[in-house]
Design brief:
CATH topology of the largest domain: Dihydrodipicolinate Reductase, domain 2
CATH superfamily of the largest domain: Dihydrodipicolinate Reductase, domain 2
Strand content: 25-35%
Shape: globular
Radius of gyration: 22 Å
Number of helices: 12
CATH class of the largest domain: Alpha Beta
Mean pLDDT: 94
Low-confidence stretches: none
Structural class: alpha/beta
Helix content: 25-40%
CATH architecture of the largest domain: 2-Layer Sandwich
């Protein structure tokens, strides 16, 4: 099976290495035929080209692997590949979450499929586990640490009693965080992964913008001191819940009891849990990023296509997100406490409170109305 590889960065080069090394008989049936690179300085292999059309229009190439990242031109290239009747494997969660409905429709019309194991959880076989579970079971909900960068920052802040700015800088120096870390620390990376997990778990497509999303940009040492004083740990969790006619989907920091398994996930690791009717809770843990772990997931998808073990057989139905169905108690620190007087169950200080039990949709509305750039919010589950 011949493969066209779009992008030869961290993930793309890992895919090329795994296939070229051919450590198993299945992988030896695969061949990277062409590789798209960005500029002439990268043309170090006769398979490399600067022309995407040379790859997308090649009738001998069966599968397009997109590892470019970003919305464009990745979206345009994937769309053209599907229109040309080629299977697509992508590690690009942001692009796919933004355009999945359109791309799935094009794929169905051309009798091909889109695969995206590596787009969510890196090397963790999260999507594959959802496919296997749903052959027997309905998935009720999922939750997880989908972003290793924020997990690293939160753990290091907690253990060292250091500032967010210091630990963000450290994460950047170690290569865990980008120069512009917004997608990670504002929760948007997790939002894309929650969206794709809902696609796989619930056979739904949604408007990603409707997923309530709170990040950790504004977390302070005082917030983590509250956790320590009360035997809690702070983690940024992505969540999905199935309600038949609608779903709840949200990203929020959570103050967890130390007995919760997610409270003990270290450094830049990911952990994701599904809850289904007969299997119950099943958890997956491992590296959520990195060249070879993520490339491993990409190659698994290619082997699935080659062996005709194609999980993408179900239609995806548009569904609304209703976060009024999720209720909880929330820790809020804000410079505008007057906006939360009616919600307060307990005042921790003049600017910090615990809310009564209330819907996430209602508290999110209050946060939006307060319009406080310094505000930090976390759900308290212990």
């Amino acid at each position: 099976m011949k493969i066209g590889l779009l992008g030869y960065g961290v993930v793309g080069s890992g895919v090329g290495k795994i296939i070229d090394d051919g450590l198993t008989w299945e992988v030896r049936e695969l061949e990277v035929a062409r590789i798209l690179v960005k500029d002439e300085s990268e043309l170090k292999d006769p398979r490399m080209t600067l022309s995407a059309d040379e790859i997308l229009n090649d009738p001998e190439i069966d599968v397009i692997v997109e590892c470019m990242g970003g919305l464009e031109p990745a979206h345009t290239y994937v769309r053209k590949a599907l229109e040309n009747g080629k299977y697509v494997v992508t590690s690009n969660k942001k692009m796919l979450a933004s355009y999945c409905s359109e791309l799935f429709d094009i794929a169905r019309k051309n009798n091909v499929t889109v695969h995206y194991e590596a787009a969510c959880g890196g090397g963790i076989p999260w999507m594959a586990s959802l496919d296997r579970t749903r052959r027997v079971d309905d998935i009720i909900s999922f939750r997880g640490i989908f972003n290793g960068t924020t997990n690293y920052i939160l753990e290091r802040m907690s253990k060292e009693h250091s500032s967010f700015a210091d630990k963000l800088k450290e994460a950047q120096e170690l290569g865990y965080a980008e120069r512009d870390p917004s997608d990670d620390i504002d929760g948007y990376d997790v939002r894309s992964k929650v969206s794709l997990s809902c696609v796989k778990a619930f056979d739904t497509v949604q408007n990603t913008e409707d997923i309530t999303t709170f990040g950790i940009r504004t977390i302070s040492e005082a917030d983590l001191q509250y956790c320590e004083d009360h035997g809690l740990a702070c983690k940024l969790l992505g969540n999905g819940e199935f309600h038949h006619s609608c779903i709840s989907a949200y990203v929020i920091p959570v103050f967890l009891g130390k007995e919760d398994v997610f409270a003990n996930i270290p450094l830049n690791f990911n952990a994701i849990e599904s809850n289904s009717l007969t299997l119950g809770r099943a958890m997956f843990y491992g590296q959520g990023a990195g060249s070879l772990p993520t490339a491993h997931a990409v190659v698994q998808n290619i082997v699935d296509i080659w062996k005709n073990q194609d999980p993408e057989i179900n239609d995806k139905f548009p569904v609304s997100i209703d976060n009024s169905r999720h209720e909880g108690c929330y820790y809020i620190r804000t410079g505008k406490p007057e906006f939360f007087l009616d919600a307060a169950a307990e005042w921790i200080s003049d600017n910090t409170l615990l809310t009564k039990k209330m819907s996430l949709q209602k508290v999110a509305g209050m946060v939006e109305q307060a319009d406080d750039e310094t505000l930090f919010i976390a759900e308290v589950t212990a």
